[in-house]
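Morning, I've got a small favour to ask if you have a moment. I owe you a coffee for this, so here goes:
>
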Amino acid sequence: MFDFGVVVWSAGKVVFTADERKMMGAVNRSVKTMRDSTKLLTSEGVITLFSIFFFIVISRLLTKIEMSSLAVLGIITGLSAMVTGLGLVTSCIQKAPELLARGGKG
């Protein structure tokens, strides 16, 4: 086995050094992150297009009063979701890592 600094040649096979494997792992993670980001961005774009399309359809079918009642309903449901949570999710996100690090359950 001969070490030429960059690549180790062994019986006709290319064997990468530890540093090169580490670098290739970082590149693979970067490529995976970019693919996942692209998928997420594409799905958000599709959702936005569907939302615009259905808003146009619904606005043609409903009267102004019915549309305004949907807007008020959206506000009420949004506020009720915030009130029912009472910040519980935020406090769980803040406290969970500390509790997991200590090994505690409560």
Summary: Residues 34 and 40 are 10 Å apart (CA to CA). The radius of gyration is 27 Å.
